[in-house]
Amino acid sequence: MKFEQLSGAGNHFLLFDARPDSAHAEPTSGRWSPDGAAAREWCAAAAKEGALAPDGVLVLMESEVAMARLVIWNSDGSLAAACGNGLRCVGWLLLRESGQREVLIETHTGTRWVRGETSERGAERLEAELGPVTVEALDDSLALLEGEREAWKGDVGNPHCVFLVDTVNSKLFASRGLELQVDPSFPGGVNVGYLAEESGEWKLRVYERGAGETGACGTGAAAAAAVLRAAFGLPLPLSLALPAGRLTVTETAEGGLSVSGGVEHRGTLVVGALSSESRDI
Fold first, then answer.
1. How confident is the model at residue 273 (pLDDT cuts 50, 70, 90)?
2. Do the bridges between strand 257-270 and strand 278-279 make them parallel or antiparallel, or are there none, so unpaired?
3. CB–CB of 1/26 below 8 Å?
4. Domain with residues 2-129+262-274, CATH architecture
5. Cα 122 to the chain's mean position, in Å?
6. Residue range 200-216: average pLDDT?
7. 134-261 CATH pick, 3.30.1490.20, 3.10.310.10, 2.10.70.10, 3.40.50.10490
């Protein structure tokens, strides 16, 4: 099976084109889309091939309301409700394909614009609109651990819990991210962010539900920026340093948020044939 390998600010993906008429499509893709078991299998196979371990699989499908429809599977086989960096990576391919500077993509949370200039190797900056973002301070129902100063709940089309912390390098980060996946306060799991001002800049580290810690998280950056605006009145745009890259969050004309950063095309990867069943979604 053929995939494009893409990285959005250090967030790594396999892209599978299931559009039957696309020049990029896998010839056997037809009108079907892989299921979660297939995505999990492909991510594991890609890692064995020596590729960068994917955080998920981006599936492009036909759309009646946009240039294409995007379905996102996490590396553990769960379905992702939203993914800012995945959206930007798919935007790169569609921008290259169309020759335009903006494309409209159908997602689970609605249609979203991706804008920017591209090259064969990627893009220095692509911006993806994420829609409305809401945050609220959590009450004492979530006890804070050592180094955690405040906890905020966020909605970016997917759930987030953002902690303002003393340092993002806390030894508690990984265990905190894991334990909140089964916390009754967050049915279905949650993306967990540690956010701190260090060395004169805001740093963010994210444990993503369905993938674990990733090098960058677009929706996590949007949730963190919304928390900084709500907690401290910081104006947008805001630039955030993540472990593998930098993302900038901006307010759109409609009052939602967008996220921008680099995209890298890491080439085409061929892995073994699909053994899991697939289904229409």
1. low
2. unpaired
3. yes
4. Roll (3.10)
5. 17
6. 97
7. 3.10.310.10
Contact of 40 with 82, CB cutoff 8 Å: no
What distance in Å separates the CA atoms of residue 79 and residue 108, rounded to the nearest whole number?
10
- Per-residue pLDDT band for 281 (boundaries 50, 70, 90) equals very low
- On the question of a cis peptide bond just before residue 237, with omega within 30 degrees of 0, the verdict is yes
CA distance 220 to 10: 14
Total residues belonging to the chain? 281
Q: How far apart are alpha carbons 110 and 99 in whole angstroms?
A: 23
What pLDDT shows up at residue 43?
93
Q: In one letter, which amino acid is 97?
A: E
3-state secondary structure of 47: helix
So which residues are the catalytic ones? 83, 217
Residue tagged 């084109």 (tokens): 17
Read off the pLDDT of residues 46-79 as tens digits, 9 standing for 90 and up: 988 766 789 999 999 999 999 999 999 999 999 9
